[in-house]
Amino acid sequence: MPRPASILQCLTPIEIQEFLPGSSADEIRALAPVLTTVDPTNLSHSAWRDLLFQRNPEVLVACWATPDLPPELPPALRYVCYFAGSIKRLVPREHIELGLIVTNWGNSISRIVAEGALLHVLAGMRNFTHWTIAMHTQGAWKSRTSRSASLFGRRVGIRGFGRVAHELIALLRPFGCTISVFAPDLTPAIAEQNGLRVAFDLNELMRENDVVVELAPLIPETRGSITKAHLELLRPGSVFVNVGRGATVDEQALLEVARGGQIFVGLDVFGEEPLPADSGFRNLPNVSLTPHLAGPTTDRRCDAGAFALKNLRAYAEDRPMESVITLPIYDRST
């Protein structure tokens, strides 16, 4: 079986523990005659470059803590197996232009992110943040005028039609929701095949649904594209959730609309991360917040590790790999 001559793993001990539990680390070790593991914690960029050229690996296994690749690469390096998602921080575009193979976690975490979106949807419908704060700190209890809402039978709008959207649609099916999608790649024929409605613009998506979930990638065309005018189309009592990218929304406008108290908001992503301690979103009882952890959850990072191991085996056996980052994918990715 063809094998890579050497693999360099640049992972922290925690990343190894979470992404490669059980025998997974041993399975990677079996793929190459030479495997070197380095902990990138406190590794300077100059030391990282020196290490890369010293080891001259054919395959680099990388994750969140791995330092950026330098402008020049060691001559043997052919493949970067990235355990996480966006690779733009790690890999300059010119390396892919010159033939470097790069894969990421692909769709392995999509269902977990969709689950996170559903969490925020349900939190908004049930006014969960209000009751959590009030019951913990104010001794509150329901009254005859307390209101809550169910997701069953609701109209849900989704912006984007990637894998997370597909997984969210599947999770919504048991609720009997009418689902509409606004996405450039959704045609009426595809929508009909999937039992969806087409929303032809953001105005329609906001105006016609009880729940709106933002899942668009962050590219120049989507940055700040959800404006105050769009958000003011949301009907009273509706829910707006963003688990895509924070900067696709005019966050100041969203804060102003949320402060009006007529809608519920669920946010996992923000234009500035970590979210500043004095952010106005933090003290609103109609806003649910999570710190960019919709996915993968700690216990499911093994899914991304298993996907990476599958790609490493495919590379070793000279078979096609999944979720290869091409130049078009690189350019439209977040």
Task: Report on the architecture of this protein.
With 334 residues, the protein is an alpha/beta fold. The protein folds into two domains: 138 residues, NAD(P)-binding Rossmann-like Domain (Rossmann fold), CATH 3.40.50; 180 residues, NAD(P)-binding Rossmann-like Domain (Rossmann fold). It is 34% helix and 14% strand. The strands form two sheets. A seven-stranded parallel beta sheet has the order 8-7-6-9-10-11-12. The chain has a five-stranded parallel beta sheet with strand order 2-1-3-4-5, with helices on one face. The protein is elongated and about 70 Å long. The relative contact order is 0.15. The mean pLDDT is 97.
Report the sheet-strand fraction.
Answer: 5-15%
Q: Mean pLDDT, as a whole number? A: 97
Cα(first) to Cα(last) distance is 36 Å
Output the CATH topology of the largest domain. Rossmann fold
What pattern of helices and strands is seen along the backbone? EHHEHEEHEHHEHEHEHEHEHEEHH
What is the CATH superfamily of the largest domain?
NAD(P)-binding Rossmann-like Domain
Strand order of the largest sheet: 8-7-6-9-10-11-12
Strand runs, count: 12
CATH architecture of the largest domain: 3-Layer(aba) Sandwich
Total discrete domains: 2
Radius of gyration: 22 Å
Oligomer status: single chain
Largest sheet: 7 strands, parallel
Label the overall shape: elongated
Would you tell me the structural class of the helices and strands?
alpha/beta
Helix count, DSSP H or I runs of 4 or more residues: 13
| Name of the level-1 CATH class of the largest domain | Alpha Beta
Low-pLDDT segments: none
The helix content is: 25-40%
